[in-house]
Design goal:
Elements lengths: L1 E2 L5 H11 L5 E4 L10 H7 L4 E5 L7 H10 L2 E4 L5 H5 L3 H7 L4 E4 L16 H8 L1 H6 L12 H24 L7 E2 L3 H7 L5 E3 L2 E3 L15 E5 L5 E5 L3 H8 L21 H14 L4 H10 L3 E4 L5 H9 L2 H5 L3 E6 L3 E6 L27 H7 L4 H9 L3 E2 L4
Length: 396
């Protein structure tokens, strides 16, 4: 696979394929791609790739670009509409050079329409789709979701599309034209609002975050215990609601309220929340979680985890490490390195099992000479590209 993408969503999509065993060549400018300045992005999105530092727009680099396109099973980029044509890595060019290749253009707004040529990123797509307002809660100011959820979902959607394209090609047999995969960040943002739909021409109201940002109603929200700690409570059906109502502290709960009723909270729901808030304030949160679980209800303490707390409580859990959800390896720049591992791994498998990810974070151009040699270019040609600063090899 050849990865021409930059920033987060595109590189993450390529990393997912690398985690599954693909040989991914990351093509970036000789000075490095834009996100090289953000160490977290390199750590999160470039694992397992080989870096080829190359100015793909230089005429002298054209033979290399064409060899890459001929070699690749998958070609990925997330340039703005029109840029790929200018660089000679557009769909028609790839199809001419390599009819079997799966071609993925992970765009911002899609490849057609009045916004097709507009740039886009996670924050902009949160604004366009109303995501920031949704997480702010009813009647509140919008809140920026700083964990880049649309970039993350966009990367996974693109990865799924590329895998589907490879499967379609394999099912049809080689010699068939490769699939065109066309994910977008806007589509990923729309995915976040997938509970919106119409029935008989009327908008169906789904759950909406309340003004206090505690949840979607009395049966699907967080509550504070008497000790100031919080816990999450989920009542998925009416039977769960009846089990909750059997507690002596909440005998005044309405017996017929639908826990997951959509839309704004009605008077019955607000009354139920008041009853539950008053009851849960009478004992520590952990005690309530134990009692609720004893009734077969879904309840979980909210852990006050910062990044270090998350590492200690979640990533250092022996089961998560056994399942490969955490990976450990040595890096050139950061020494011993640990990070979240491939989330598609199943079962207690070893991180270094055959077909698994390469445990490395590539430096800028670390594999330039290696890749160019594999593509069939001789030493003199490689030296000329390096001397002209069209390509870069990481110095030892």
């Amino acid at each position: 696979m050849v990865d021409f993408s930059a920033f987060v969503a595109g590189p993450l999509a390529a990393e997912i394929l690398a985690d599954l065993g693909a040989d991914v060549i990351k093509v970036e400018p000789p000075e490095g791609e834009a996100m090289r300045a953000a160490a977290y992005a390199i750590a999160a999105c470039q694992r397992g790739k080989r870096s080829l530092a190359l100015n793909i727009g230089a005429p002298e680099a054209r033979p290399v670009v064409e060899q890459l396109l001929k070699w690749a099973d998958v070609v990925l980029h997330n340039f703005r509409v029109g840029v790929a044509e200018r660089l000679g890595i557009d769909e028609d060019t790839v199809a001419r050079l390599n009819p079997d290749a799966v071609y993925c253009h992970a765009s911002a707004f899609g490849t057609t329409g009045r916004r097709a040529a507009f740039p886009g990123n996670d924050a902009l797509m949160q604004a366009v789709t109303g995501f920031e307002r949704a997480v702010g809660g009813a009647g509140n100011d919008p809140l920026a979701a700083t964990w880049i959820p649309i970039d993350m979902s966009g990367g996974w959607v693109a990865a799924a599309g590329m895998l589907a394209g490879l499967y379609a090609r394999a099912s049809a047999g080689r010699g068939q034209r490769g699939q065109h995969v066309a994910p977008s960040l806007l589509g990923a943002g729309i995915l976040m609002q997938s509970g919106v739909f119409e029935r008989d021409g009327e908008l169906v109201r789904g759950p909406e975050l309340d003004a206090r940002q505690t949840g979607y109603g009395p049966g699907y929200r967080i509550y504070s215990g008497g000790d100031g700690r919080w816990f999450a409570l989920v009542l998925p059906d009416h039977q769960a609601w009846l089990r909750l109502a059997s507690l002596p502290e909440v005998t005044s709960l309405p017996a017929t309220y639908a826990p997951l009723r959509g839309g704004a909270l009605d008077a019955v729901a607000r009354q139920a929340e008041t009853v539950l808030e008053t009851a849960f304030a009478t004992a520590p949160a952990a005690q309530w979680v134990d009692r609720l679980r004893g009734l077969g209800l879904l309840a979980e303490l909210i852990e006050p985890l910062d990044r270090d707390g998350f590492r200690r409580a979640v990533l250092d859990d022996p089961v998560n490490r056994q399942l490969g959800r955490v990976m450990s390896y040595e890096t050139a720049d950061w020494g011993h390195f640990e990070q979240i591992g491939p989330l598609l791994r199943c079962g207690p498998t070893e991180p270094l099992a055959d077909g698994g990810p390469r445990l490395m974070l590539p430096g800028i151009g670390e594999h330039t000479v290696q890749v160019l040699t594999e593509l069939g270019f001789g030493g003199g040609q490689i030296e000329a590209l390096l001397a002209a600063k069209i390509a870069r090899q990481l110095e030892d």
